[in-house]
Automatic annotation (TrEMBL):
It is a multi-pass membrane protein. Belongs to the autoinducer-2 exporter (AI-2E) (TC 2.A.86) family. InterPro entries: AI-2E-like (IPR002549). This is AI-2E family transporter. The chain crosses the membrane at residues 93-113, 119-138, 150-172, 227-256, 297-314, 320-346, 353-370, 390-421. It holds the Pfam family AI-2E_transport. Residues 1-82, 432-461 are annotated as: Disordered. It is found in: Cell membrane. Residues 24-41 have a biased composition (Low complexity).
Amino acid sequence: MRFRLSGRAATGRDDAPAGGGASAAGAPPARDRAAGAAPGAVPGGRPVGEERATPTLTGEGGPGDPRADDHDATAAPAPAWQRGERAVSATRTLAVASAQLLLISAALVVIGWVLGKLWVILLPVILGLLFATVLWPPTRFLRRHGWPPALAAAVVLLLFLGLIGGLIAVIAPQVADQVTELADQAASGLEQVQQWLQGPPLNIDEEQIGQYVDQAIDSVQSNASNIAGYAATGASAVGNGLLNLLLALVLAFFFIKDGPRWVPWLAAQTGPKAAPHVAALSQKTWSTLSEFIKQQALVGFVDAFFIGLGLWILDVPLVVPLAVLTFFGAFVPIIGAFVAGAFAVLIALVDEGFTVALIVFGIVLLVQQIEGNVLQPIIQGRGFNLHAAVVILAVTAGGSLAGIVGAFLGVPVAALIAVVYRYTRDALDGRHPEVADDGTRHEVSGDDDGAVLTRSPAPPA
């Protein structure tokens, strides 16, 4: 439909410009054409001298259209002259943002590729740092009481190895004594399953079951070479794991012996403006990693104690190994607890039957719910929580990238990324995250012989 503004509305004057539109052809002015216009009024019924209202549409579809009762018109807003310029500017901004996103994605891919190539070196370093977070508090205690750094680190590390070795010495005999019994019970369970299959409602005869068993045996024999290859790969992985563990322990010794020198050295490699940020961020990440290990250890201990107590009351075998598995499973949040609980239920099912297995399942579920909804929020506090979805994604991503080790390291890495993000966000907002609660910040001081970290009052913002 065609719309036309009145002459006054279109030009801002009472009369349309001479020689333009219908006036150039000798047509009377628009105000003279207004049908039924009262004296002293202009089109639309507005008295002379009244404040001018919003322009109204005339012509086809407007108020003066005699067919107004027959149809309705939709008046779209007129385009502004800046529409094209703004569209070009928005397109340019989108193109720049897309190019930046592509460059950042390419950089992340390159960094991931480099880290993958250096994973053999990075894995012992990361494990060594995790061990150092556990071993540093007793080492610091000994150093504060006059022990030399090397002696304190060596004693703490040897005590840690003795604790792990003693734990293995306690668990191994129980597993060796009961594994044969569990194997016999598993065979008995399979016979019960076979009898159940032969009865209603399946009514599978013994000959058919034998055929299925023979097919399974043939499948295993036909894939013997692949299975042997998997076994060799698994043995190689175990060997590499032991080597990485040994190297991580050696690195942990050096970390707890020379660790206090690391932050001053790192801060000294930067400029005076960056040094406080480097020192503050280093200590925040270390504190976060230490708190994560401590909290997960406490949560794992509570889970292991109560689940182990329930298994002991129900006379389920392998109580101590299952409790230890539950403890270490707590370091892989959500998934680790699920796997440890599944093992406990499975062993209870094989040894004690369906009823006891169902009770064990209820105990595991109850303990996990109390731990997840009550204990962890109290221990961690609001400032350190990672959303459950972030935890699941971190564990899943770590497991897909690096297997069991990746699942174990997924949440600590996510926690460190969150710390760096929050620190950067606060710095961009001008909140000075390098300043401690007491109003001081780290500064590097020293001479050519060495650098030390000192605390001084933060300058006014």
